[in-house]
Amino acid sequence: MENFDDLFAPQPDQRGDTPFDKDAWAARKQQEREDVYLMIDTFAHEMSMDGGLFCDYLDVQARFDRYSVSNAILIAAQKPDATKLADFDTWKASGVYVKRGAGAITILEPGKEYTREQDGSTGVFYDPKKMFDISQTNSTQRAAPPVARDGRLLLKALMNNAPCRFAISNELPKGANVAYSGRENTIRVRQGLDAPTIFRGLAQELARAHMDKGSFQCQNPDFVAYSVSYMLCQRSGVSVEGFSFDRMPEEYGQMDAQAIRGEVGTIREIAGTITADMNRLFAAQEKAQKNRDGGAR
């Protein structure tokens, strides 16, 4: 009779026979972090000279407005068309399954705090985290497009809580439809323009006003304002026809990755400030509408 006892004998490659090596685990995690940071720096340098890649980053940051610059860069580097991310367990918990063979998108999430030896200050470890886009799952849903809003409401929201005044004027520089004057603290708008044209110009000049009033640091204010306008149009569902990033600022090609992250960080911060002001007006308008609807019953 055949003997099967050997099947139950401990095997050298079984998980329980290999003690957990804390040092090896820590070294592996550190290498993963270094690989991710290298990806960030590499893509930041590449997008500083390639308008197509820079536009990919702006598109990602426009969709993922709560994500950090570093994570938006990571998404742009790995899956620039991503629209909705979650980790494997989160998708599974919602009844959605990641497709076999789908490549994970690595981002960074805050981990444990640590004390810096140099000055005793507290820092935070950022750990790599594997995410998957909704397009990599069996979900038939897709991210909803920006809410279509009336042009007048969009413009009112854009002007909400602005750090400057607004005025209609036909005395503008040649070729300009909207222009900000720091001396007058006023954005002047040419008479008779359509809503999308006003929105694009107003967003750009509003970014200039915020830079003029705030403590934002950047190397190329004109390009920053232009990029802010592009992001706000993408978030608001306003046509970006006419925008072009074919010619990147020459100084960007001479900047290191950290400086580039700082530059796009300024774009993100200004766009975020304006978006928050817009959202406050939208929320107030929606609340007022609910009150009106409730009173009509």
Descriptive account of the structure:
The protein has about 300 residues and is of the alpha+beta class. It folds into two domains: about 20-135, no CATH class; about 150-295, no CATH class. It contains eight helices and six strands, in the order αααβαββαβββααα. A three-stranded antiparallel β-sheet has the order 1-3-2. A hairpin with a 4-residue loop joins strand 5 and strand 6. Helix 1 packs across helix 3 and helix 6 crosses helix 7 (about 220-235). The mean pLDDT is about 90.
Summarize the structure.
The chain has eight helices and six strands.
| Element-by-element helix/strand order | HHHEHEEHEEEHHH
* Biggest beta sheet summary: 3 strands, antiparallel
Strand order of the largest sheet: 1-3-2
How helical, in percent, are the residues?
40-55%
Number of domains: 2
| Low-pLDDT segments | none
Distance N to C terminus: 85 Å
The number of E-state strands comes to 6
Indicate the mean pLDDT: 91
Oligomer: single chain
Beta content: 5-15%
The helix tally amounts to 8
| Structural Rg | 25 Å
Structural class: alpha+beta
The general outline is globular
